[in-house]
Write a sequence for this structure.
């Protein structure tokens, strides 16, 4: 298993898919270290250790390369969510980038309108409140519901705003009729663009079906997630 994982790491490395390659290198190295512990043949141990040392050196080089890309504002990682895929709750997508220094978040999403979309945004806010970060301000830019649901949209957002206030978080809400982009930015430099915005989950089969409460078990619509790092996070 270790050899196969490292082989996959090398393939990804050659394809310049460095973030995925780094993960495979790390997993493969851990597996090979377990093999070394269980091997009694000293010659084999020496061989394994030599290869592990080479892989560790390459993994460190990739880490430095990724860090330089972040500093240069050139980092880009893409995740493809397949139709009906599960395991893509908000924590899965965002938690890695919500470091302790995150205090301000920008959300641009034209479709925080209907009830289920308001719940999506609420769940996103809950994740921020629970996370290791110390978020103090959330900026939401969305568009007005053009139908009879506008009053529900506004009252729902105001309720979320009031609830966040009790947790020491300020929610600034702005509306635009021309917004099209969907992106989420953190003030530590991370930017996440999701093709469908926060609304990439499918409607549950019923109120008492698996996946209704736990979004990690909820089937998704097909979409693409692009993750960037920039030292210049723009303001609204």
């Amino acid at each position: 298993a270790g050899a196969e994982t490292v082989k996959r790491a090398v393939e990804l490395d050659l394809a310049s898919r460095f973030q995925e390659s780094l993960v495979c290198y790390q997993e493969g190295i851990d597996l090979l270290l377990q093999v070394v512990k269980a091997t009694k043949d000293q010659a084999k141990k020496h061989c394994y250790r030599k290869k592990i040392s080479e892989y560790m050196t390459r993994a460190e080089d990739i880490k430095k390369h990724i860090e330089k890309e972040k500093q240069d504002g050139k980092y880009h990682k893409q995740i493809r969510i397949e139709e009906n895929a599960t395991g893509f709750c908000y924590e899965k997508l965002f938690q890695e980038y919500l470091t302790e220094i995150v205090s301000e978040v920008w959300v641009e999403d034209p479709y925080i309108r209907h009830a289920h979309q308001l719940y999506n945004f609420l769940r996103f806010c809950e994740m921020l409140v629970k996370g290791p970060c110390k978020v103090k301000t959330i900026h939401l830019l969305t568009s007005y519901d053009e139908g009879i649901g506008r009053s529900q949209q506004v009252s729902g957002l105001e309720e979320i705003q009031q609830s966040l206030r009790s947790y020491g978080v300020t929610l600034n809400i702005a509306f635009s009729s021309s917004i099209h982009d969907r992106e989420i930015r953190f003030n530590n430099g991370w930017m996440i663009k999701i093709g469908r915005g926060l609304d990439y989950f499918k409607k549950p089969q019923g109120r008492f079906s698996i996946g209704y409460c736990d979004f990690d078990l909820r089937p998704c619509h097909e979409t693409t997630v692009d993750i960037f790092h920039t030292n210049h996070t723009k303001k609204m």
